[in-house]
Amino acid sequence: MARGAITGFPAGGALPLRTLHATLRSITERLAHELAQPGTQVPDWSATEWAIAPAVVAIHGVAALLQASLPWRGPPPWNEFLRTQATHVAQRAERIERVLRLLDLCARDADLALVPLKGAALHAFGVYRSGERPMADIDLLVSAAQEAAALELLRQLGFHETSRSWKHRVLEPGHRTVPAALGEHADNGLRIELHCRVAEQLPLRAVDCSQLMFPPQPQPGLNGYPSRGALLIHVLLHAAGALAVRELRLLHLCDIARLAARMSAAEWQETLQQLARLEGGPWWVYPPLALAARYFGTIPPAALRQAEEACHRRLRRAYRRCTIAQASASYLWISALPGLAWPRSLRELGAYVGARFMPDAEARAQRRECAHSEPRISGGSWSQLSQRQRVLRYLLARQPRHLTLEPVRAALRAAQPAQLQARAGSTPATLA
Questions:
Q1: In total, how many domains does the chain have?
Q2: Inside any domain, residue 245
Q3: Tens digits of residue pLDDT in 176-227
Q4: CB 261 within 8 Å of CB 300
Q5: What is the CATH number of the domain that holds 389?
């Protein structure tokens, strides 16, 4: 049973967590459909729903996209939030582009080949205009043989390693900055994540597509992906990794859908052939592809059918009717086994359950580092509990995720002045 409520309303009221969960779900689904196919009807939301809606937008990283595409305008605080967020996204994009230009020049001088990943590549391929898509970090791929040289170059540019995992090394400027409480901010700290491989744990089985990401003959400086299909494989894998921990974002689906819509039939055929040649095959592709098809409809039916046939039955059933609200941080509750459908055998399933309830020393260390470096995502009292305390709390009552609660609290704090001003009268929502 869920207990508790979230406070922060001007009149001193509180919203039960159950109600908050339902509110997050309905707002998320409405905004997902608006992003895919904008309508002209303004949402008939209560003052509470309008106050929480910016939190949903921040969770999914789609403020600038909504600002550019919505034909309607809501209450002034909502309009101002989207406008301000779009400005910050654009300013941050300019900042990142300057860093990428500098990296290109320095890498050329150092005879070092780098591949900017994900967001930077989506902009380079013209999937987004500059300032449309937020970028939290700069992800760079380098060969293992040149990793030391890349680290030295980044050190000379003022970036220092602050943490590492099996996936990447994280480098930041000399001092960490506290990120904005809600959404994007141009002055948020700029991290660089240096990868020697492109892989995800789904949830324990590593899927590695590194061999597809480097161009056949990389040149000194910044290089692009070999093809749009290679980029699509990467964004699909990244989305699958997010799905396995229930942290998918609408932005991930938009990446997939926009890129897929620009690919020719020949490109799709080549991409599907590349996926089939990966070790283990494309068993993981169906969930993110199905969600992108459900909301955006840009996935060729033949490609979706082929991905479904390669997917094992339990995973296929889990995502046939799954929604973005269920698969993302819009789902309020901590899940004991968020990736339960992903293991491909009883042995893998047993290993996954064991790792969730009895995490090893490396997993516990990563939790601590994430809580320290990304307090908005993994902070809160939950991150300070021992595994035994977590299990006990979970058994007593459903626990809300800090990843979800923190932007909701920030949105409610931001809404208080506007709500107080509106008590004398209502603020109409209008078509633009």
A1: 1
A2: yes
A3: 666 777 989 988 889 999 999 999 999 988 999 999 999 999 999 999 999 9
A4: no
A5: 3.30.460.40
